[in-house]
Amino acid sequence: GYDLRTVRRSLNLLLLDWANRGLNLWTLEEGSMPLLSGVDTYTLPADTVDLFEHRVRYGSETNDLPLVRISLSNYTTLPTRSNQGRPVQIVVDRQVAAPQVKLWPVPDNNDYTLVYWRLRRMQDAGSGIQTQDVPFRMLPALVAGLAYMIAGKIPEGAARAQLLKAQYDE
């Protein structure tokens, strides 16, 4: 029982490491949400790691305008964050529970839609019996990474840890 729990934990940590490195490009998904007049902050799905592309759609799908991503510190220096108009800037605030986006200017009507490409977190190992959220071409890297992580947890694995790390890094 303990071995299964430690392998599941190691697998989840490995997948988190991949997400932090941005290696899981198969988890890019397009999303959208309607924007409301006078509302500047919107919560993204909780499994969102980051946004890559973002634009404001006005009316039809042919009216997409890009949003410029700015840092939170630049956003806080805007003198009038309550100005209303068509949003032109976006801030991604990566909160613990779920990331949020802040738009400037604040939408001035309900005809805008935020359209984005997000990097979502990979599904965790769960009970260990479902298919992993990894494409088949990444299975060798998954197995090598898991072998390396487990080698550091068992006494007889320490001798092979460097070899396994080299295989995983390759």
Task: Give a written overview of the molecule.
The protein has 170 residues and is α+β, with helices and mostly antiparallel strands. The chain contains four helices and ten strands, in the order H-E-E-E-E-E-H-E-E-E-E-E-H-H. The strands form three sheets. The chain has a four-stranded antiparallel beta sheet with strand order 1-10-3-4, with no helix packed on it. Helix 3 packs antiparallel against helix 4. The longest helix is centred in the first third of the chain and has 20 residues, at 2-21. It is elongated. It starts with a helix and ends with a helix. 19% of the residues are buried. The model has no long low-confidence stretch (mean pLDDT 87).
The number of E-state strands comes to: 10
What percent of the residues sit in helical stretches (DSSP H or I)? Answer: 25-40%
Along the chain, the helix and strand elements come as: HEEEEEHEEEEEHH
Overall geometry: elongated
Radius of gyration: 21 Å
Integer average pLDDT: 87
Unreliable segments (pLDDT under 50, ≥5 consecutive)? none
Q: Beta fraction of the residues?
A: 25-35%
Structural class: alpha+beta
What is the end-to-end distance? 31 Å
Number of helices: 4
Strand order of the largest sheet: 1-10-3-4
Main beta sheet: 4 strands, antiparallel
Concise synopsis of the structure shown:
With 170 residues, the protein is α+β, with helices and mostly antiparallel strands. 28% of the residues lie in helices and 29% in strands. The two termini are 31 Å apart.
Keywords:
29% strand, single chain, 4-stranded mixed β-sheet, 170 residues, alpha+beta
